[in-house]
Amino acid sequence: MESFANWHGKLNLVYNYNQNKTTLIQSKNQAPLKIQRPFYPEGQSICHSVILHTAGGIVGGDRLSCDFHLQSQAKALITTAAANKIYRSNGLQARQNIDIKIDNHACLEWLPQETIVFNGANYRQDIRIELTADASFIGREITRFGRTARKEKFVEGEWRSHFEIWQNNQPLWIDRQYLPGSEEIFHSPHGLGGKPIVGTLVYLGQPVSPEIVEQARNLSISLPPSCFGVTRLKNGLLCRYRGDSTAEVRNWFISVWQLLRMSFLNRSICLPRVWML
Predict the structure, then answer these.
(1) Nearest to 88 by CA among 58, 112, 67, 49
(2) What is the pLDDT of residues 192-217, one digit of tens each?
């Protein structure tokens, strides 16, 4: 039986575009999820939103659900106020479900801060994105397995991630990952390869030229070749990282984000202010 202390948090956001301004027209939340007041560091057309998790982390039995809808031509950047912490499980699985709908000519940049998976955590995340014609999406996930500053490894528990992006009922990209915690898999070249940090950045919206793929690879010139990969997708781009440094993967992803923004959205990046704290 689940404890009464378990959270069943919900967050529903709807963005509308009218008279050259993107507005958060609907915001419903249930603790521990909250949304900060929208702000516009790039002007009225792009709404920046910051999600708060007031409980500070996720434990076994917690259920978090997020539903984002960008109506036609809306543009939003959504991030989180702090790293997401997945605590050691009490025997129950913690789950987070994110459902996103992006309408015609709308664009969402989903750029949460890193997730830290504690040793012994049992966690599953499901993300499903529905794109209509001419919609676009840029998203990133950075996950640290174990509190490496304390020399902790992820050798107990399990982590699952299901990430799906669809357009007009056709799958564009489906990514299903499963990592059971064990010493062998932590060090296996088919697991973490001894590297505690993995990252994914994906863009879907328009065809990506071979030149942009090559530029994304060149932006990772400071990384060891075994730490990164860049793949051209149908109407998109995928970047992968497996390494030791959050700063390393974050800086590479920011550079690729800048490349994609300039190439497809015709604007430079604007770093969320909460990243500076």
Answers:
(1) 58
(2) 999 999 999 999 999 999 999 999 99
- From residue 43, alpha-carbon distances to 47, 48, 143 in Å are 8, 10, 31
The tokens describing 101, both together, are 């709908």
- Read off the pLDDT of each residue in 244-261 and give the average, rounded to a whole number: 96
Distance CA 93, CA 120 (A): 11
CA separation for the pair 25, 155 (Å, rounded): 44
pLDDT tens digit sequence for 221-235: 888 888 999 999 989
Question: How many angstroms separate the CA atoms of 277 and 60, rounded?
Answer: 28
Separation between Cα atoms, residue 78 and residue 274, nearest integer Å: 11
Which of 136-163 are b and which e, b meaning 16 or more Cβ less than 10 Å from the residue's Cβ?
A: bbbbbbbbbbbbbeeeebbbbbbbbbeb
